[in-house]
Records
---
Amino acid sequence: MAPRIAWRVATVRAVVEETAHARSLVFEVPYWPGHRAGQHVDVRLTAEDGYQAERSYSIASAPEDPDVVLTVERIDDGEVSPYLTEEVRAGDQLELRGPIGGHFTWRADQGGPLLLVGGGSGLVPLMAMLRHHAAQGSDADARLLLSAGRAEDVLYRDELGRLEGAAVHITLTRGAPPGWTGWTRRVDAEMLRAVGPAPSAGARAFVCGPTPFVEAVADHLLALGHPPAAIHTERFGPTGG
Amino acid sequence: MPLISRGFGGRRRRDVDPARVPPGQYVVDDFPVLSAGPTPRASIADWSLTIEGAVDAPRTWSWDDLQALPQETFTTDIHCVTKWSKLDTTWTGVSLDVLLGEVSTEAAYLTAWCDGDYTTNLALEDVTDGRAWIAHTFEGAPLDPEHGGPARLLVPHLYLWKSAKWVRRLTLTEDDEPGFWESVGYHNHGDPWREERYWGD
Amino acid sequence: MTDDDALCLDGNGLAGLLAEVFGGDPTGAQRSCPSCGLRSALGEHRAYCGAGVALRCPGCGALALRIGIAGERRVVAMTGVLVVDVAPG
């Protein structure tokens, strides 16, 4: 197990502008042991005077992808995210540790149904699961419910539109573009019931996003009758910055 | 030696008098919130502070009692073991000299007990002679619950984990009894100028 | 639910720190809480960052683990019973 908790040097191979506020960093990580969809890495930054900052980021890429991709959303007065979304460029090297996290993961051989509920950048680990689902050609029933502010904030928007084999539902809570026929309110029990599947289908649910979002959604899922053991949560605290 | 991240500077201030910054610390302008548990929400109506334990007679103050005591407003620097320091913070509170002056004791130590299950231990000599307060006002406004309101212990010459938030009882003890963080690796005394962060420092 | 979202992560977010202590990833390990009886994964425990880290039972908020982050050393105090399943092979 030791290699997983050692810091390794990763090289940025490319940066991808995802939205006006978010960017994906594509890393080459020598001797990367592979990961499961849903896991994350710790990133450590060291300034010239030795000052250090560490943050955790979910891996956006599927296990089938040889690169390790992280998607970082810029938090305005954050310390780390402005650096990662504005300063870092191809060729830079950062320290990574991982993959980390065995509890919030999905492997295609576990089957479905799969219910993924994400708030904002909580979509990132769920996207790794969807990419893995697609790469494996899984026929597991997979449904995504994404809550985002505005249409332009939706990460991987084009890719989500092209996903086959998974049902994608989006609710925009801060204003919808003209012609939008989808939801425009916060996730609630009625919305979750509409997305399904029914609790009797035995779905595995993964909920990720800011803490209040995760806790509200988990409460709704329990109230709808999903068993606690089927609900996996990962909270992004505001210390991600 | 960790890899230096090109172009990374972090968020700390660098235009400060180094004589005010203890070893290993960096200065911040915000006020980070750290805690061992959820923020308690105590009402002033139910609030009380008790000094008890190895004393002649325990003494309890209600919120009104506390406010009726001599108040001090002062400016000081605070230092957290997680390496941030905040300079020129202004507080209002009651000196522990005033509160301890109302009990008689031969004890040398105290344990602070707080809402939630937090505790910290201090030597009486570290909280007397103008070195500690029960503080209820920060920068002229009632102390925010996130930062320990209604009232917290404030002992600015030691690392900030000793300035117990949401303090409710000070139990005087004959022996020194390590508190919440002191029991899991943090230095029993905690002087930032000697960098007493962890056991063995 | 108190308004403590400024402080609360969960054991999953601290998996790197926990891996340092346990030598592997314990976020799936099940802990039985002596205060309320709830059995839950360490990854589901609510995490608070003070000087060190406090992990609390997601059911009742009782203190489950304290982890002192003391330089190169980690100091851990734990209550309750932890069950770790070691994968075969």
Note: Chain C touches chain A at residues 1, 5-13, 15-16, 19-20, 23-25, 27-28, 41-44, 49 (CB under 8 Å).
---
Amino acid sequence: MGHLIMKDISFSYLNGFSLRQVSLMVEEGEMVALLGPNGSGKTTLIKLAAGVLNPERGEVLLGEARLRKLSRKEIARRVAVVPQSFNIPFAFTVAEVVMLGRTPFINTLSGEGERDRSIARRAMELTGIEQFSKRTFNELSGGERQKSILAMALAQEPKLILLDEPTAHLDINHQVEILELVKGLNREQGVTVLGAMHDLNLAALYFDRLVLLKEGAIFAQGPPAAVLTEKTIYDVFGATVHIQQHPSAEVPHIVILPKENNPR
Amino acid sequence: MKSRKKIALILVLLAAVLFGAMLLATAIGAVHIAPLDILKMTLNKLHLAHFDPTWRAVEEAIVFQVRLPCVVGAALVGAALATAGSLFQGLLRNPLADPYLIGTSSGALFGLTIAMIFLPATLSFSGFGITSIAAFLGALGAVFLVYTLARIGGRTHVVTLILAGVAVSFLLTAISWFLLDVMGELHWKAGAIYGFLWGQITAVDWSQIAVLAPIIFVGIILATFFAFRVNAFSLGEEGAAYLGINVERDKVLLLGIGALLTACAVCIAGLIGFVGLVIPHIIRLAFGPDNRLVLPASALAGASFLVLADLLARTILAPTVLKLGILTALIGGPVFLYLLLRYRREYAF
């Protein structure tokens, strides 16, 4: 039985884009990446899995529970989402932002308790942000912010973490740092991960299984070596690439080839 | 995150400031009354003590029938506006939001206009003149209209809400002035309209306070209870939803509380600018943006601010009473500018 099951999902926006009968299963403890060009449906699938969009047809199951039957609070106690970034208009400190992750557990009358504080502290330790916990979130670098958002997600004690292009605006060192952190959580805490990813090579390095989307449907899925081939990448992205073996890991590495009329 | 003890200490201090401000404002006027006497006669009145009067009967009448209702009224208006302002700023993620942003002010003006033109001025209900009631209903009606207009496919987006608020405000304001002008009411009732537009706390009596104080108290307490949800809204609506917030339901609830508080304030005092905008900012700069502190602290600070502003309005050019809104703008504007220049970095986002 999978941890997240999306069964025959159909969804369309007013602007005409639609997902057509997508089925996807993520096993407990698995780390799965959604890949595809802009507008292929990655983010839409993440939002459907998070329950902020509802499918027109089909069903999303979270463990044994139907997502549709769960309240927002019940979903937030099981699923955390890490988006590209958050823009926070006031000067909240990092510790305050991380504590926001406890929102689905906080009782309106009693407020946050010692347990909430210790969970938030642990989340900051795991992501290595304790040293700037008192700084203002808005003053941090992109990488530090993203680690804080990851810590906030961890404070939700989720079974499933959904990533929506979490490294899109980051320098390469921070991209690696974030994915190392997520991979560590996946390995050590058994957190299930489904992530929309932009960078194919990073996805191949850190995720167990890749799902390649094209125009709102699944084009290919499987282990990195099976999904990332010169043919699939040409078919889905229209880009000509050369696939090499990664020098240190058992995964493919994509080398971009310039168009033929523009050789160096 | 501030500890509970620290939050409680800050609130107690602000409450003490409010108490002092109210005492001062009750003591000062054409006839000065000793603060100690005021305390004693109040305790007597509440049957909490029995002091022998060291004051004249006329002084007691001035305190209980003239000054105290106005001082309490000013405190209620200040608390309501500052709470509504911080609620709207947090919920709409807009530091420029004030309690009048989503239609309340123009709705109140519209209600007032209709009442002035079409209803007999002598009508009143439980101590409220018909124009106050019409302003109250107009304020709530306009917010409802704005909210309904901004609702698309079961969702109300914040930007749409603000834009609809601006559009409805312009429209209702224009219609109101048109009616006042064409129907000739503008000349006859210029004083009352002017008083409404720039705010004044004059004809407040205990029966009005008895009705509005409970609503304002409950509104502020509810807002404070839901403050952690307002915090979650800082991440935007989608971010709030990821944290388990039922976004559409809570938005209606919190906007409703803010609109009700604003309408109560309008009902007592007309339109008073800057309290709802500036006080929450000052509180955030002093104590940080956690709404669990910002909301109740703004209420107390807003109350103190307006009590003192009303005292100044009554005294600096006595016997002329300045319009309260003019005074709050004259104080609030420069204070806001000073904060902006001094803490520019905090506002860079």
Note: The longest strand of chain A covers residues 4-12.
